[in-house]
């Protein structure tokens, strides 16, 4: 159990945001359907014959089009590394809030709550460290959490390798080669991120999200979560609650892959429900391009205008300041 002093002042922040604001509680109180996400065995992709590889690649592409989310097992990442990451993460979040928020741990990447929230519906009951892969080997980022460095370096390398493998499958399914893709898009340790998340127990779970509904502003995301549950996504215009699978990693398509694929792959809105009794932990890896990478649809006619990742990030940040939420890809639809 995490000590009370480690939790950020979320209640005080929420009270300020909620003061004088109406709140539609139906979005949090509605009952979601429970579903198992598609589970894809990557053993066929990594070790199988040509037929097995083709079958696995087809399953990845189909899940990316139908769900925008899927789970992968036999992904090649050592469970011992995942378990070590979880232990180190819990120890880090156990630190007092005053320590986490002021001592420069992980390149001053600590975040909590929702600084841009303008209404209760925009408020997230969570805290996180969101760090560029370029910084995880820097010893000066770790203070007394020195054992975290080795784990993060190994974890990031494994996630980078898996993300590139999955991206290559999706690119080839579009009739492109990875070489052609990489001539336009740079996705490496200088552009990608890890986000360590903690969702403290929340006294108002019917009113507040652990993480508000959103899509991811990347090509794809790989999530390692605990078994508490709470992740939900939109499927067929309904919220679907994802059952935790201790042996699987969750993969989801981001906005950039939806634009690149001309909406063949789906970047799906998702959220994390708040839990009144149990805290939840997860680690997300984000496959992002360089800021000057040009995002263009792989074929014509395109549904979207061409834009750089920097353009996209700037528009997301502007909308967050103005409206307290991200609007996303619809900003770049052709008229």
UniProtKB/TrEMBL annotation:
Keywords: Iron, Metal-binding, Oxidoreductase. InterPro entries: DIOX_N, IPNS-like_FE2OG_OXY, IPNS-like_sf, Iron_ascorbate_oxido_reductase, Oxoglu/Fe-dep_dioxygenase_dom. GO terms for biological process: coumarin biosynthetic process; response to molecule of fungal origin. Pfam families: 2OG-FeII_Oxy, DIOX_N. Residues 21-31 have a biased composition (Basic and acidic residues). The keyword Metal-binding applies. Belongs to the iron/ascorbate-dependent oxidoreductase family. This is Gibberellin biosynthesis-related protein GA2ox4. It comes from Salvia miltiorrhiza (Chinese sage).
């Amino acid at each position: 159990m995490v000590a009370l002093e480690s939790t950020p002042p979320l209640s005080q922040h929420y009270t300020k945001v909620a003061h004088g604001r109406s709140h539609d509680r139906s979005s949090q109180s509605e009952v979601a359907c429970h579903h198992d996400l598609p589970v894809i065995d990557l053993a066929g992709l990594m070790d199988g014959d040509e037929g097995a590889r083709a079958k696995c690649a087809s399953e990845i592409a189909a899940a990316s089009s139908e769900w925008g989310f899927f789970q992968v097992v036999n992904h090649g990442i050592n469970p011992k590394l995942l378990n070590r990451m979880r232990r180190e993460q819990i120890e880090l979040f156990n630190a007092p809030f005053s320590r986490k928020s002021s001592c420069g741990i992980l390149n001053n990447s600590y975040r909590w709550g929702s600084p841009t929230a303008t209404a209760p519906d925009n408020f997230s009951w969570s805290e996180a460290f969101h760090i560029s892969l370029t910084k995880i080997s820097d010893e000066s980022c770790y203070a007394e959490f020195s054992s975290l460095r080795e784990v993060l370096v190994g974890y990031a390398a494994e996630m980078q390798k898996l993300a590139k493998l999955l991206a290559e499958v999706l690119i080839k399914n579009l009739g492109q080669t990875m070489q052609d893709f990489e001539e336009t898009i740079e996705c490496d340790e200088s552009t990608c991120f890890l986000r360590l998340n903690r969702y403290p127990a929340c006294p108002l779970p019917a009113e507040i999200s652990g993480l508000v509904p959103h899509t991811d502003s990347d090509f794809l995301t790989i999530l390692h979560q605990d078994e508490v549950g709470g992740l939900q996504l939109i499927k067929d215009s309904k919220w679907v609650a994802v059952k935790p699978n201790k042996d699987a990693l969750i993969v989801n398509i981001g906005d950039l892959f939806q634009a690149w694929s001309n909406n063949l792959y789906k970047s799906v809105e998702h959220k994390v429900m708040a839990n009144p009794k149990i805290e939840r932990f997860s680690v997300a890896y984000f496959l992002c391009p360089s800021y000057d990478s040009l995002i263009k649809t792989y074929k014509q006619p395109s549904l979207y205008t061409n834009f750089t990742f920097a353009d996209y990030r700037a528009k997301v940040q502007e909308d967050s300041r103005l409206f307290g939420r991200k609007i996303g890809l619809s900003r770049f639809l052709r008229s």
